[in-house]
Specification:
Elements lengths: L9 E3 L2 E5 L10 E4 L2 H9 L6 H17 L6 H16 L6 H14 L7 H30 L6 E6 L14 H10 L3 E7 L6 H13 L2 E5 L4 H6 L5 E4 L3 E3 L4 E4 L2 H10 L4 E4 L5 E2 L16 H4 E2 L2 E2 L12 E4 L6 E4 L2 E3 L5 H9 L4 E2 L1
Helix pairs in contact: 1-2, 2-3, 2-4, 2-5, 3-4, 4-5, 5-6
The structure holds 5-S-methyl-1-O-phosphono-5-thio-D-ribulose.
Length: 356
C-alpha cells in the first residue's frame, strides 16, 4: 500500500475536498468546501475528524477564507485570517493539533502582511499544503519508529480511528500497523467498535479492509475478556493531546482499555506526532474534554435506543495516566517512561533522535 497513499485532503480551484466520514463505510461522498462556515460545521459534526486531520483542516480553513476574501489590501486579508482562526478555535476543544495549526498559520500570515494580496493568499495556501505534506511524512516516520515494538507475528488491539482518515493520509496508530504489514509481519488487529460514534467499526475496519490487513471487530466491552484470554500481544492508540508528564487524552474508552492492558500485562502504546504534545499543560487533568450531544448516546443515526428523554453523559475523550502507557511513538523516536516531554522535545529541537 506504500505507493498509493491517498491524501485525506485535496485543494482544487479554491475548494478543499475531503470525504464525509459520517457516511463511511456505506457511502464515499466527497465534500467540496468553499466556505468557512461549511468547514466549521464539517469539523463540529465529525465529517472530518481525528487530531492531525483537524489541524490540517483548520490550516486549510484559514487559507480558504482568505482565498475568497475580496478585501483590497493584505491588512484586510490578515484580519480575515484572524477571523477564520477565531471561528475554527471554537469548533472542537480537545485535539491540540487544531490550535497548533492555527497558531502556525497566523505566525506566517502576520509577517506576510507587506506582500501583494495574490502573494499573501498563495503564502497561506502554501503553508496549509506544507502542513499536509509534513503530516504524511510524519505518519511514515511514526510507522517506521514503531516497528521495533511489533513482533514478527502480532495480535494488536486498537481503539477509535487513528489511521489515514484521521491524518493527512497514513495515520499514527495505524501507521505502525501499516508499516508492520508492509515489512512482512503477520498482523491481526482487533478493532474496538468505539461507542458512541463507532469510529473503530466504521473507519478503522474500512481502512484495514482496504489495506488487506486481517482484523476482527469487537464491542468495546469485549476487550478485557479478549486480553484475559491471552489473545492480544499489544495495544496501540492515537492521541488528541499529550500533557508534559505523558498523560494522554484520546477517544473515550481509551482509559478503560489501558487499565485492562495494565491488569493483563499487555503493553499499551500511544502513537502521535509531536504536534499533539501540549507543553503548556503539566498534566492530563488540565486537558479540556469535549462533551457532545446526548443524542449520540441515546441511539444511532437518528434511531433512538432508549426511553425518550433518558439523561446521558457524553464526554468524547478521556485521559489515560502516563503510568499506564508503555511507550509513546513519535516521528522523532520512541519515548519510554518516566516521561519528560519538555526535555524530549528540547532534545528534538537540538537534533537528538529520541529513543530513551
Ligand atoms: O472524535 P474523533 O473521532 O475526532 O476522535 C479521534 C480520536 O480520538 C483519535 O484517536 C485521535 O484523534 C488520534 S487520530 C490520529
Amino acid at each position: 500500500m506504500t505507493a498509493d497513499i491517498k491524501p485525506t485532503f485535496h485543494w482544487e480551484e479554491g475548494r478543499l475536498i475531503f470525504l464525509d466520514q459520517t457516511l463511511l463505510p456505506q457511502r464515499e461522498v466527497e465534500i467540496r468546501c468553499r466556505e468557512l462556515p461549511q468547514l466549521a460545521e464539517a469539523i463540529k459534526s465529525l465529517r472530518i475528524r481525528g487530531a492531525p486531520a483537524l489541524g490540517i483542516a483548520a490550516a486549510f480553513g484559514v487559507a480558504l477564507h482568505v482565498w475568497h476574501d475580496r478585501g483590497p489590501t493584505s491588512a484586510d486579508l490578515l484580519r480575515s485570517a484572524e477571523e477564520a482562526a477565531d471561528i475554527l478555535r471554537k469548533t472542537r476543544p480537545t485535539a491540540v493539533n487544531l490550535f497548533w495549526a492555527l497558531d502556525r498559520m497566523l505566525s506566517v500570515a502576520r509577517p506576510s502582511v507587506h506582500l501583494p494580496i495574490a502573494a499573501f493568499k498563495q503564502r497561506l495556501l502554501d503553508e496549509a499544503q506544507a502542513i499536509l505534506k509534513e503530516d504524511l511524512e510524519t505518519g511514515r516516520a511514526i510507522g517506521a519508529n514503531g516497528l521495533k515494538l511489533i513482533p514478527q507475528k502480532a495480535s494488536i488491539i486498537t481503539h477509535c480511528n487513528a489511521g489515514g482518515l484521521a491524518t493527512g493520509g497514513y495515520g499514527t496508530a495505524l501507521a505502525v500497523v501499516f508499516a508492520a504489514a508492509e515489512t512482512g509481519r503477520d498482523i491481526h488487529v482487533f478493532v474496538d467498535e468505539t461507542r458512541p460514534l463507532l469510529q473503530g467499526a466504521r473507519l478503522t475496519a474500512y481502512e484495514l479492509k482496504r489495506a488487506g490487513i486481517d482484523h476482527t471487530l469487537i464491542a468495546d466491552s469485549m476487550a478485557a475478556s479478549l486480553l484475559a484470554q491471552g489473545k492480544v500481544n499489544l495495544a496501540i492508540v492515537g492521541a488528541d493531546r499529550i500533557a508534559s508528564n505523558g498523560d494522554v487524552a484520546n477517544k473515550i474508552g481509551t482509559y478503560s482499555l489501558a487499565i485492562a492492558c495494565d491488569y493483563h500485562s499487555v503493553p499499551f502504546y500511544v502513537a502521535a506526532p509531536t504536534s499533539t504534545v501540549d507543553l503548556s499543560l503539566p498534566e492530563g487533568s488540565r486537558i479540556p474534554i469535549e462533551h457532545r450531544a446526548p443524542e449520540e448516546v441515546r441511539g444511532w443515526m437518528g434511531n433512538p435506543a432508549v426511553p425518550e428523554g433518558t439523561p446521558c453523559w457524553n464526554p468524547a475523550f478521556d485521559v489515560t495516566p502516563a503510568k499506564l502507557i508503555s511507550a509513546i511513538i513519535t516521528e522523532e523516536g520512541v519515548l519510554y517512561p518516566p516521561y519528560d516531554l519538555p526535555e524530549a522535545l528540547k532534545s528534538h529541537a537540538q537534533g537528538v533522535k529520541q529513543d530513551v
